[in-house]
Amino acid sequence: MKKCPKCGADNKDIQRFCSYCGASLASPAEGKIYNIVMRRPAGLQWVLNVIHIKVDGREKYQLANDSAVTVRMIPGQHEIEMSLFGQPRKKKFTFFASEDTALICTPTVTSTISYLASPVKVVDSYGRTY
Ligand SMILES: [Zn+2]
Predict the structure, then answer these.
(1) Which of 3, 17, 51, 120 could form a disulfide with 63 if both were Cys (CB 3.0 to 4.6 A apart)?
(2) pTM for the full predicted model
């Protein structure tokens, strides 16, 4: 028996899709691997500090101005943590890898004072903000 990851129904081992809800029964390892591109704009040249990125609490990346990192992920929910200037500006959100997707990371800046207390702003290629 194969348990549907979406609705929990039992399906026969030979089935590739759930007969109740139609979800794929392929294990994540059999599925496609997606590229998540995290890009940081060239603007804000005076913000020289790198954005620190942690994916699923493990891998670590550093994102400088006008640069990008590509992370390969299996479909599903992932936790992406970003921080600028350490703990106080840390931002943690759950990202669902479903298509080749770009995340645009930038510190939110409205004035010098609010900049110092502002978090990292993240917009994906569909315009969703996190
Ligand atoms: Zn199902």
Answers:
(1) 51
(2) 0.60
Which pLDDT band, with edges at 50, 70 and 90, does 115 fall under?
very low
DSSP for 38-70, please give it. EEE-S--TT--SPEEEEETTTEEEEE-TTEEEE
Average pLDDT of span 41-66:
79
Mean pLDDT computed over every residue of the chain? 76
Among 28-32, 46-50, 104-108, 120-124, the range of highest mean pLDDT: 120-124
Residues with CB under 5 A from ligand 1 (ion): 4, 6-7, 9, 18, 20-21, 23
Q: CA 67 to CA 41: how far, in whole Å?
A: 7
CA of 49 to the centre of ligand 1 (A): 46
11 Cα: distance to centroid of ligand 1 (angstroms): 8
**What distance in angstroms lies between residue 9's CA and the mean position of ligand 1's atoms?**
5
For the chain, what are the domain ranges? 1-27, 32-124
Distance from the alpha carbon of residue 25 to the mean position of ligand 1, in angstroms: 8
